[in-house]
Request: fold
Amino acid sequence: MKNFSCLRPYSHLLLILLIGGMAYSNSFQAPFTLDDLTSIVHNPWIGKPGDFLPGGPGYEFMPRRWVVYLSLSLNHYFGGLEVGGYHLVNLSIHLATALLVYALVILTFRTPNLATSRLTEQAPIAALLAALLFVAHPVQTQAVTYVVQRLTSLATFFYLASLVLYVLARLGGEKRRDGGSWQTVLLLTAATMAALLAMKSKEIAFTLPLAAALYEWCFFRDAWSRRLLFLLPLLATLLIIPLGIMIGAGEAGTGVGEQLRAQTDIPRLHYLITQLRVIVTYLRLLILPLNQNLDYDYPIFTTFLTLPVILSCLLLLGLLLLAGYLFHRSAPSRSPSFSGDPALRLVAFGIFWFFLTLAVESSFVPILDVIFEHRLYLPLAGLAPAIAVAMLLLSEKSKAFFHGRIPLLAAALIIISLSVATWQRNAVWADNITLWQDVLRKSPGKVRPWYNLGCYLYEAGRAEQAIRVLSQAVRMDPEHADAWHNLGLSHLLLNRVQEAVPLLRRAVRLNPELSNAIANLAVALIRAGQPGEAILILERNIERFAAWPEVHLNLGIAYAITGNLATAQRQLAVLDHLAPHLTPALRANIAQASSLIQ
Reply:
């Protein structure tokens, strides 16, 4: 291992890239799913990058996250909806972020509080282990393989870039006690710019200035008056996200409290209580990443006075107390018997980082989905170095056994196992049917997996299977208009017109704004021999369908069937303007109707 630690840094960097690339080598054809559809596939502005600059309509689509949407728009501009290009960018961000983890560990061992550690000479090994844990862990797949979760990975990239630049500035300031060199000013400016980009990528970046302050507390020794001079530019960015929320509340005509929740009416206290259990689940996933799930069916806890919540509180409190103990154990002490290696402070920092970086999504801001694996992406960036350092400290302690190599060999086996698990997890994302079958096996009591699997089975032409799955969805949620709609379409695909009509009627009744259901109900009525009713439905909604060629085609067919050839001809003229390739079908129907009349 000593020889391994002496390898040139670029060898370490190449190994990180190699392991990460291999673990995600089977992810490039993973399809768009869930929020990818609204954010990318059906986003009307996605193909125009200029629209996502401040002031453009794309920017207004998601102003607080416009940096990521600009990157998605650039993806679309250069590659359309070819999904491989999106995955290539996502993986590049992931690998670059892993390299930043490596850099952060190297720099941390140069700080005043860690410079005297026994592990200083092994800093490259600590950095390598940390970066490999980060890049290879399967819990990261959701932030990398789920395209739209570039929100998380890109925010984390800028978050770490800002912190690395800040630490470089601080280390330069340590050499020049006045801290006023142009290099220091330039680095602090770059760190602040990276912080701005992080905060305009995702709201999790709100904790970045606090993470920088935590880093100062853990690894530097100056008087706080001097530290604040360095921290001030980053601390000023704390205003960015709150101001964005206030502006959004004003534009939407809602209160700030409504902006601080996401598509859910879960009470804030209930959400916070539930998160105590969720954080324990996150810890379990980090230690034992089994039964990963895109869509957990997680219970909502409403009181602290239940055994699972109480035990979770005790575990989390114990973890925080351990971090506090390690922090003080690693501080300069008058009692040599109490002092520990300064590297213990990096372990403490990693634990504090874990809780701090989860604070935005696992505290009092209610989010519809109480648990998502991509929320561990940023926390693992700080926890991975803590785990790596803990392994090296164990190695130092166990030198009497196989020269201390057992913990490092265990680390190598863990990284290999995690890489294989990541590759296997990415195989689940191979197509939407495989993905949602996996979700359904793990969350059978939740409607969304039944609905999504049914939709993808229908799209694949597997209508009989789709009917079985969507029937269960509407049994579980009789008010689910989209599920009724897709159930009707599945019957229509099998030419079961009489069964399709009442199902589509119910979808429209539950959601009169569901345009696709209205259009498809008209198709079903025409095929069921009820063109008159189809005409009434389409004419009543003709304004919303003004630019829908298929609707004008079907309306023209319905008029032709009823013998109203003049109106059918008018629809033909509209169709000739919107979609000339569809006009032969309508002309054929008009000609057939004309011959029957004659």
The chain has three domains: 12-32+81-428, 445-529, 543-598. The CA atoms of residues 443 and 502 lie 29 Å apart. DSSP finds 29 helices and no strands in the chain.
